[in-house]
UniProtKB/TrEMBL annotation:
SMART domains registered for this protein in UniProt: THN
Organism: Venturia nashicola
Superkingdom of source: Eukaryota
SS bonds (residue pairs): C33-C293, C80-C90, C95-C101, C205-C227, C231-C240, C241-C252
Keywords recorded for this protein, A-Z: Disulfide bond
PANTHER family, sorted: OS03G0233200 PROTEIN
Record protein name field: Osmotin thaumatin-like protein
One Pfam family here: Thaumatin
Length: 332
């Protein structure tokens, strides 16, 4: 039984608590691309998975687990070659010369997680802040003891490449009841972008930001067209939202790269202060599946729900934290 069929018939997976009181959380990585992908992982806090990099052939899923305090990211590396000692190179997403990553990678689409963020909530997102290389989806895996929002508020898709992109602007994956679509059904359907055409998808990356520069001749683009962000290319504070003059939402605005990235993937982070239209939340202990090259179109969950997702926006979550602190002080 595939994961999606299993998720359709099971509402929870039993979590395991470790000695430190943290919950073991399922973390699945699936490759739906036509070619092999080499996922890279990086842990910036908490207890991460047992491996930080591996080969994932087309159509396969790797079952991992992390603890509920994990803070980290996952991305896909492409066109890699490694020897028997795990030393080699990748076309995109390289984290040095090792199969197993010990640092963050180069330009790539990112799945970012902060599983023990605030108020018993896990924060997660798809980020194009550093650039783009592969389409990506994140869907939640409900676990026993977690009451999760409807899956059409939590399962997001970024379809920024022609691979897997459905050109039908009225795309409807719910015409069949045989399988759920990335954890959702016609009862709680996902909302999709209706503006992007095949031409838009194949030409959204600005010429000057192409990861593999090609001569600008008409509208010709390579089939695989990874994209640098303006921050990654220039490193300038005004493009990276850094430095005293550019380190706030008031002083750092979307640039021409982030505007195009946001148009292609409305639910993804496009620059550093894109929080409220890009951060998703679910109760801590919820599991996740990261899918490379999902089939369909980008979701517009935030727009449909008016900026909220997972039952609460980032702003609402922070307000709840402050309210809890004030109540605790009042009764202390």
């Amino acid at each position: 039984m595939s994961l999606r069929n299993f998720m359709y018939h099971a509402s929870w997976i039993l979590p395991v608590a470790n000695a430190a009181g943290k919950t073991e959380v399922p973390l699945l990585v699936t490759n739906s691309c036509r070619d092999t992908v080499w996922p890279g992982l990086f842990t910036s806090g908490g207890t991460g998975p047992e491996t930080m990099g591996f080969e994932l052939t087309t159509g396969s899923t790797r079952n991992l687990s992390v603890l509920s305090d994990w803070n980290g990211r996952i991305w896909g590396r492409t066109n890699c070659t490694f020897d028997g000692k795990g030393v080699g190179s990748c076309g995109t997403g390289a984290c040095g010369t090792s199969l197993v990553c010990s640092a963050t990678g180069e330009t790539a689409t990112l799945a970012e997680f902060n599983l023990e963020a605030h108020a018993d909530q896990s924060f997660y997102d798809i980020s194009l802040v550093d650039g783009y290389n592969l389409p990506m989806a994140i869907q939640i895996i409900p676990t026993n003891g977690t009451s999760v929002p409807p899956s059409n508020e939590t399962n997001l898709i970024c379809a920024g490449s022609l691979q897997g992109f459905d050109p039908n602007k009225n795309f409807n994956p719910y015409n069949t009841t045989k399988n759920p679509y990335y954890g959702t059904t016609s009862t709680h359907p996902l909302s999709f972008d209706t503006k992007m055409s095949q031409a838009d998808i194949s030409h959204w990356c600005p010429w000057d930001l192409q990861f593999h520069p090609v001569e600008e001749v008409g509208n010709t683009r390579p089939p695989f067209d990874p994209c640098l962000s303006l921050c990654t290319k220039t490193g300038k504070p005004e493009h990276c939202c850094t430095g005293k003059k550019h380190n706030s939402a008031k002083t750092c605005k979307a640039n021409y790269y982030s505007k195009r990235a946001k148009a292609v993937c409305p639910d993804a982070y496009s620059f550093a202060y894109d929080d409220d239209s890009s951060t998703f939340t679910v109760p801590t202990g919820t599991g996740f599946e990261v899918v490379f090259c999902p089939v369909g179109r980008s979701t517009v969950i935030k727009k449909t729900l008016g900026g909220t997702s997972g039952a609460r926006s980032l702003e609402t979550s922070l307000f709840a934290i402050l309210a809890g602190v004030l109540i605790a002080l009042w009764f202390s």
